[in-house]
């Protein structure tokens, strides 16, 4: 911790309590973010496994669909112009929804069919069975493509969320918590030093008071001793013997 950071914080009991509360909050936040990162990582790995399986399956599905297309063309001829003339709107559509994973919204795509089959009468003359098989194969391929697109989008979203969460976890663990702990240690050391200085000051005050009292006692004892010696001196008998107002030398003062 730098001297500038230490100077900015006054070492008091109130600041110590506040910094301990901040330290506890930082540790709690670190724990929660760590759990969030773990949950996102588990889901990330699960999606990665599904992506690998979907890509491996995609090759076989597309191969079967292409082979079915070749069979249909061989049996029924080229019916592409008929299909293009009947196309008015998409029958298979994709909609999006959100799925919450540990506070992160990831997009999920799902396909659905809107309307009836526009090509149900196509191939009645010849090649109907091959055409029906072709539609089923490509419908399966479209469904797999939509699922793969959903997994890929979720994969990218989770990857970015995991990076951000891990940066926050590392920042709290290696920057914020050590800085707060250093601040708490600094405040505690300053307060302990202040307590030691206060104890030393009080001890010195008590010592000076004791010395002053001792000097005062010595002075009083000296004064009492001086008074006692003065009382035994014949030249200062007046300190010892009270005067009689009826003495002859004072008679003229009484009746003057």
What would you say this structure looks like, in words?
This protein is mostly helical and 256 residues long. It has a domain at 12-182: Orthogonal Bundle (Helix Hairpins). It is 72% helix and 8% strand. Strands 1-2 form a two-stranded antiparallel sheet. Strand 1 and strand 2 form a beta hairpin. It is rod-shaped.
Strand order of the largest sheet: 1-2
The radius of gyration is 51 Å
Low-confidence stretches: 234-242
The CATH class of the domain at 12-182: Mainly Alpha
CATH topology of the domain at 12-182: Helix Hairpins
Oligomer: single chain
Record field, number of beta strands: 2
Quickly count the helices.
Answer: 5
Largest sheet: 2 strands, antiparallel
Order of helices and strands: HHHEEHH
Classify the secondary structure makeup into a structural class.
mainly alpha
Strand content: 5-15%
Which geometry do the CA atoms define?
A: rod-shaped
Give the N-terminus to C-terminus distance in angstroms.
Answer: 95 Å
Q: Could you say what the CATH architecture of the domain at 12-182 is?
A: Orthogonal Bundle
**What is the residue-averaged pLDDT?**
78
Please name the defining characteristics of this protein:
Helix Hairpins
Quick structural summary:
The protein is mainly α.
């Amino acid at each position: 911790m730098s001297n500038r950071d230490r100077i900015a914080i006054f070492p008091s009991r109130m600041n110590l309590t506040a910094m301990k509360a901040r330290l506890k909050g930082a540790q709690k936040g670190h724990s929660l973010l760590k759990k969030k990162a773990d949950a996102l990582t588990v889901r990330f790995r699960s999606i990665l496994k599904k992506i690998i399986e979907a890509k491996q399956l995609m090759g076989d599905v597309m191969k079967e669909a292409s082979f079915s297309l070749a069979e249909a063309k061989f049996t029924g001829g080229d019916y592409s112009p008929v299909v293009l003339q009947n196309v008015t709107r998409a029958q298979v559509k994709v909609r999006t929804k959100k799925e919450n994973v540990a506070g992160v919204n990831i997009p999920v795509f799902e396909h659905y069919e809107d309307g009836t089959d526009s090509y149900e009468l196509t191939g009645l003359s010849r090649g109907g069975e091959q055409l029906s098989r072709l539609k089923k194969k490509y419908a399966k391929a479209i469904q797999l493509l939509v699922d793969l697109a959903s997994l890929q989008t979720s994969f990218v979203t989770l990857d970015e969320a995991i990076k951000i969460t891990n940066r926050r976890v590392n920042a709290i663990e290696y920057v914020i918590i050590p800085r707060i702990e250093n601040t708490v240690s600094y405040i505690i050391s300053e307060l302990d030093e202040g307590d030691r200085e206060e104890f030393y000051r009080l001890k010195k005050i008590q010592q000076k008071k004791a010395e002053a009292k001792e000097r005062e006692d010595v002075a009083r004892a000296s004064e009492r001793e001086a008074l006692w010696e003065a009382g035994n001196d014949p030249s200062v008998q007046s300190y010892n013997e009270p005067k009689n107002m009826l003495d002859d030398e004072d008679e003229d003062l009484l009746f003057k």
